[in-house]
Amino acid sequence: MSISLKKIKKYEYAEAGEGHPLVLLHGLMGGLSNFDEVFHHFGSKGYRVLIPKLPLYTLPLISTNVTTLASHVVDFIKNLNLEKVTLIGNSLGGHIGLIITKNHPEIVHSLVLTGSSGLYESAMGDSFPRRGDYEYIATKTRDVFYNKEVATKELIDEVFSIVNDRNKVLRTLSISKSAIRHNMANDLSNMHQPTCLIWGENDQVTPPEVAQKFHELLPNSELYWIPECGHAAMMERPEEFNRILEGWLQKVVKTYGHQ
């Protein structure tokens, strides 16, 4: 199913449904389509689901970093007059969610992290990006998933086009380096919002010990594992991801209320 974009001021986003707001945050090499199944499922389940398009490649290079991206999402939430949102982030999107939770706890009802950076992540390696080497990029893209078939030719082509675009490469590296510098380990104990950790057991980018560490440091967290699953559980195992998330949201939104 396709996702169509709306635009308000400088913000491009997708929206579906009504109810408690869920804000979905995609990763560095990702896009809105990464959350396709989550978007359509929860948009028909009594939630207002929003996916802001992150300005990964359009900010001035000097301010292309993880904190500026977090500020963009905060402004988006405030511009849409959303209150007490649930942030759902994959990879870099999870890291953005953590920064927002730290700096603006008043707007965050709860947090969902899947394959989140913020503590540790294995990037594309020292040789990234090897421009022009399609097979290398294809292998690296497939490594994100346990089931390599999830890395379609369309997805590989998308990543390949990013690493062969000088503007995008510079910004990708800038964001990646800023994320590594911005370690959240010392901040997590102060985040008391209910947090759901949904992790692929075979995640090679943010391995299982990263999930364990998040669970240990976040005072109000629950950890769920998805077997035979890599770094992007909502893409690779969407049915299991949605089932876990739906059960957790029913419990947490009811327990903690919308306000």
Short overview:
The chain has one domain (6-256): 3-Layer(aba) Sandwich (Rossmann fold), CATH 3.40.50.1820. Helix content is 40%, strand content 18%.
CATH class: Alpha Beta
Report the structural category. alpha/beta
Tell me roughly what share of residues is in helical segments. 25-40%
Average pLDDT taken over every residue: 91
Cα gyration radius (Å): 17 Å
Q: What summary fits the major beta sheet? A: 8 strands, mixed
Percent in strands: 15-25%
Description:
With 259 residues, this protein is of the alpha/beta class. It has one domain: Rossmann fold (3-Layer(aba) Sandwich), CATH 3.40.50.1820. It contains nine helices and eight strands. An eight-stranded mixed beta sheet has the order 1-2-4-3-5-6-7-8, sandwiched between helices. Strand 3 (20-25), helix 1 (36-43) and strand 4 (47-52) form a beta-alpha-beta unit. The two termini are 32 Å apart.
Task: List the SSEs and their pairings.
Elements: E1 6-8, E2 11-16, E3 20-25, H1 36-43, E4 47-52, H2 66-79, E5 85-90, H3 92-103, E6 108-114, H4 134-142, H5 153-163, H6 166-181, E7 195-200, H7 208-217, E8 221-226, H8 233-236, H9 238-256
Parallel strand pairs: 3-4, 3-5, 5-6, 6-7, 7-8
Antiparallel strand pairs: 1-2, 2-4
